[in-house]
Every structure is written in C-alpha cells, then in structure tokens.
Write a structure and sequence with these properties.
Helix content: over 70%
Order of helices and strands: HHHHHHHHHHHHHHHHHH
Keywords: Acyltransferase, Cell membrane, Membrane, Transferase, Transmembrane, Transmembrane helix
Radius of gyration: 23 Å
Number of strands: 0
Family: Belongs to the membrane-bound acyltransferase family.
Oligomer: single chain
Strand content: under 5%
Main location: membrane
Number of helices: 18
Distance between the termini: 16 Å
Pfam families: MBOAT
Structural class: mainly alpha
Subcellular location: Cell membrane
Length: about 450
C-alpha cells in the first residue's frame, strides 16, 4: 500500500483514523501496530514476516543489552551480534547480487543468482532499529520492556516505506502518552496534502519530462542541463513530499516527528546542503559512524578518512550499485574541498553566487545518482560539458524548455520558503482561504491519480 493511491486516501486512512480516534487511548498502540502490519502486508505479504522478525529480535536484544549493563564485555558481544544479524539481513536482500556481480567482474568467475525483490523500507527500519540498540548501549535511553510499545515504534506505517529514520529517543514519551485532537489532526492533514501535491502534481510530471529527455540517444549541452535540472527538482519533491506526508500522518496519530528537509536548494555551500537534505539519515551517520570513528577530533589524515568512509557508506546505503558509491565519494571530496580549501573563499562571495555554486555541484551530483551504469554516467557527464554532445543547443532543448517552463517556474518557487511563509500568513489571516487552497490541491492531486498511471516514490526502493 502506498500513500499516493486512491485506496489509501479514501479507504484505508479514513477507516483506520475513525477507529483510532474512537478506541480508548490504551488500545491505540495495538491498533497502530495491527494497522501497520496490514499496510505493509498489502504490498509485501511475505516480507511482513521479516519485519516482524526484526521487531522481535531487536526488542529482545534491547532488553539483553540493558540486562548486561554492568558486564561490558558481554554487552559489547551482544551488540556486535545484533549488528551482524541486522546488517546480514540487509546485505542479503539488498547487496548479495551486487557483491556476486562485483566478484565475478574482478575474478571472471560468474555465479548465477536469482533476483530477489527488495523488501520495502528494509534500509529504513534496519537503521531505525539499530539506532535503538546503539542508544541503549551508550545509555541514552533505557530498553522498552513492553513488546507492543516497541513493535509500534518499529513498524509504524507512516515512516515504514521511505522514512524519515525516526529514533526511539525522539518519540519515547509519545509512544506511552500522546494527545489526539482536531487541531493536531487538521495540521497533519494540511501537511499530508502538501506532500501529496508535491509528489503527484510536481514530482510525477517532472519524472515524465526527465524520462523523455533521457530517451534521447544524442543530447545537446542545453538538453543535458535541462534534464538534470528536471531530476534535481523531481527527487526533491518526490522525497520531501513523502516526508511531509509521513510527518503529517504522524501528527494525525498524535506524534511529532522531526523534519527531514529544510529547503536544501537555498543552501550556500555543499555542507549546508547536507544539513538540510535527508536530515534523519545525515544525523544517523554522524552520530553512529562519524563520531565513533573520531569525527574531527583526530589527525587530519584520520579526519579525511572518517569523512570518506561515512560518505562511501552513505552512497552505498542508497543502492546496490557502484554509481551510488561514487555519488557518496563525490560529496565526501566536495566537503573536504570546502573544509580545507574553499572555506575562506566562499565566505567572501555574495550569497547568490554561493547558492549558484552549490546548485551546480548538487546537480552534477544527481547525475551520479540517477545514471546507474558507468557508460550512461560518462555519457551524461560528458554531455553537460560538451563532450559527445550533439551541439550546444538544438530544437529538442528548446522544445523541453518551452513545454516545461511553467513546471520549472512553479518548482523553483515551491522549493523555496517564501511560498510557504505566505501560506502560513494566509492561514492566520484568512483560514477559510487556506482551507480552499488545500481542498483545491487535494482535488487536483486526486484527479491526477485517477487519470494518470501510478509512479512509485523514488526512495521506496532504497
């Protein structure tokens, strides 16, 4: 089941929310747990067993880690065991084919293997459960003794498929006690509609435009830049749209999830971009990989190593393909360049020029992300800079620029905070007008879902 479907919006969600608000508070975790299993099993009936195993296993390991608090050696061994099991499952389903193909490419020994479908949200709930164990180990939290409460956290459907990576520490109290009321429900509904509109009205149309551009065997320089601008906007509205919907659903259920995006395309440096993009993943790698490796409180050589390790792993987390590793290392090198070479220079530049530099760097990065084969990657990067391009500009480029102009203008405005700040003021001054706008966005989104083919969320496959 997915958020951007007629069935979810008009069948599952209203029925579930009606029951959720009617049952006593002490039964809401049970209802949320069962509803999450139904939500997940709707599209992954077999892999729901894997999700349940993850919940049971990590619940038990959490209690063991706390029980062994005064036995450091045994506690550490149990943590290592839990990490091996969690990552072993992730590697098997997500990376085993990639590892076998890489081994075959190096040795010439090719091992045939069946293609396994990736369980939806596996990377997200694996990292979510690992953060729970890590926080117990460092005594940030105490282990949850009630299995139902932990299972509710582990399987909750708003963030099951594509995050954000919510940490147990952030919602620990809300799992036990939370308030649900019409005001919170209204705020969540508004955020859900905003995310749905981002996905359906912007990201899906940008996706169709980008697919058309990539279908051209020969590109002009201008076509290549229009194409990667299209993907840059598409992935933002697709993923931030999902995050908005997840956070909105959380509010409807009485939870306050931390934001996952903070207008990343207004950043004035690459380091600022990564403080604003996929915030939950960036903070996860910072707290559980970068800082334990020593962070920046080590020698320069080890600091460089730490950054490159974190970013190689960040890239690999996104997919079982070398282009994602290259994408991660590309950002690692950019961050090192900013830290050790460009830091003082960037500070002296005007903000608009720093934003332009950041956007060009990010757009080039999305080429590494979107082109999964080395040949396609090399071809597209070359076309951006005139290598192998048919010309600087051609009629194809002008066609895409003309047909996508209004979409580009709306997208550029919508990825900046000004539009939303005006909307917030409208809510305060004229709530009826804000309600009308939300109803129009919902109606347009539903109409688009009815008359166009379904387009999955990009990050659901990661």
């Amino acid at each position: 089941m997915v958020f951007n479907s007629i069935f979810f919006i008009f069948c599952f969600l209203p029925v579930f929310m009606l029951i959720y608000y009617l049952v006593p508070g002490k039964l809401r975790n049970l209802l949320l747990f069962l509803g999450s299993l139904i939500f997940y099993a709707w599209g992954e009936p077999v892999y729901v067993i894997l999700m349940l195993f993850s919940s049971v296993f990590n619940y038990y390991m959490g209690t063991e880690l706390e029980r062994l608090y005064y036995d450091d050696k045994k506690q550490k061994l149990n943590l290592v065991f839990a990490i091996i099991i969690n990552l072993g499952i992730l590697v098997f389903f997500k990376y085993y084919g990639f590892l076998l193909d890489t081994f075959g490419g190096i040795t010439g020994i090719h091992i045939s293997h069946p293609e396994l479908s990736l369980p939806i949200g596996l990377s997200f709930y694996t990292f979510r459960n690992l953060s729970y164990l890590f926080d117990i180990y460092i005594s940030k939290i105490t282990a949850q003794q009630n299995f139902l409460t932990f299972a509710t956290y582990s399987t909750m459907f708003p963030y099951t498929a594509a995050g954000p990576i919510i940490r147990y520490a952030d919602i620990q109290e809300q799992l036990e006690r939370r308030s649900v009321n019409i005001s919170r429900f209204g705020a969540g509904t508004e955020l859900f509609i905003k995310g749905l509109a981002k996905k359906v009205l912007l990201a899906d149309n940008l996706s169709a435009l980008y697919a058309g551009i990539c279908s051209n065997t020969q590109m002009s320089v201008l076509t290549a830049w229009i194409g990667i601008l299209t993907f840059t906007m598409q992935i933002y509205f697709d993923f931030s749209g999902y995050s908005d919907m997840a956070i909105g659903l959380g509010k409807m259920l009485g939870f306050d999830f931390n934001k996952n995006f903070d207008y990343p395309y207004i950043s004035t440096s690459v380091s600022e971009f990564w403080r604003r993009w996929h915030i939950s993943l960036g903070s996860w790698f910072r707290d559980y990989i970068y800082i334990p490796l020593g962070g920046n409180r080590v020698s320069v050589i080890k600091h460089i190593r730490n950054i490159l390790v974190v970013w190689a792993l960040t890239g690999l987390w996104h997919g079982a393909s070398w282009n994602f590793v290259l994408w991660g290392l590309y950002y690692g090198l950019l961050l090192l360049l900013e830290k050790f070479v460009l830091n003082n220079l960037l500070d002296r530049l005007p903000s608009w020029l720093r934003t332009a530099y950041t956007m060009v760097a990010v757009m080039i990065g999305w080429v590494f992300f979107s082109q999964t084969s080395f040949s396609a990657l090399g071809h597209y990067l070359g076309a951006l800079f005139g290598i192998g391009a048919s010309s600087f500009a051609d009629t194809t480029a002008l066609y895409y620029l003309k047909t996508g102009l209004i979409l580009f203008i709306i997208s550029i405005l919508a990825c900046r905070p000004g539009l939303y700040q005006r909307f917030r003021r409208l809510i305060q001054q004229k709530p009826a007008g804000a309600l009308l706008i939300n109803l129009i966005l919902l109606a347009l989104s539903v109409a688009y879902m009815v008359y166009n083919s379904y387009t999955p969320f990009l990050y659901a496959k990661f």
